[in-house]
Design goal:
The strands form four sheets. Strands 1, 3, 5, 9, 10 and 12 form a six-stranded antiparallel sheet that branches. The chain has one domain. The chain is built from no helices and 13 strands. The protein has strands at residues 21-26, 50-51, 65-66, 68-69, 90-97, 105-111, 114-117, 120-123, 127-132, 144-145, 149-156, 160-170, 186-190. The chain is elongated, with a radius of gyration of 18 Å.
Length: 192
């Protein structure tokens, strides 16, 4: 007899809100409790760091290197389900409730063209991501590569919640000067 693995079913969450509101969480967030148990969105100013150290012997080899994060967010704010596996994955989730109005919310990410170390640079396009999640069967956000500038990741119809886990990879196809290169990806959810 063969065992069939359990999979998470797709489901719809109805968000009710008397007023217009949106919520975005990338990495560690500020949701207090879980949505299903009456939890409420909160604020969290934490900026998580995703990083990688490339050994000199493999620098520029073209062998991609998985990045890790200092985020500890693993559970979905919807129901507390252990969805992501930090430090290799970073949680991303958002919802939009236009209230009495209408409108579609848009999630974007903006990066500079390059990661920098003084006057030395590495193209931000050396970093890409793959979306997944424990038991995930639906693509909520696309896989992609940072392009330097603003990229649209998703749209949210009224009263929709989307979430996944990002795994970041450094392409390792350039040979930069030694040093620590930094840059920031800014995720923005907007509702016109």
């Amino acid at each position: 007899m063969l065992a069939t693995p359990a999979v998470a079913d797709a489901y719809t969450i109805t968000i009710t809100a008397a007023q217009r509101s949106i919520y975005l969480q990338v990495g560690v967030g500020g949701y207090v409790g879980t949505y299903n148990a009456g939890g409420k969105p909160g604020n969290n100013a934490t900026i998580n760091v995703v990083s990688v150290s490339v050994p000199a012997a493999s620098l520029g080899s073209g062998t991609a290197v998985q990045m890790t994060s200092n985020s500890t967010a693993s559970a979905s704010p919807i129901d507390g389900y252990a969805f992501c596996t930090p430090p290799s994955q970073v949680y991303i989730g958002a919802w939009s409730a236009p209230g009495a109005g209408a409108g579609t919310a848009t999630l974007t990410v903006t990066t500079p063209v390059n990661l920098t170390n003084g006057s030395d640079t590495i193209p931000f396009s050396q970093i890409s991501w793959v979306m997944s999640g424990a038991g995930d069967t639906i693509t909520q956000f696309p896989n992609g590569t940072f392009s330097g500038g603003t990229q649209t990741l998703a749209t949210f119809p009224a009263n929709a919640w989307k979430e996944q886990c990002m795994t970041f990879t450094y392409a390792n196809t350039v040979v930069p000067a030694a040093g620590t290169y930094t840059g920031r990806a800014v995720y923005t959810l907007s509702l016109p």
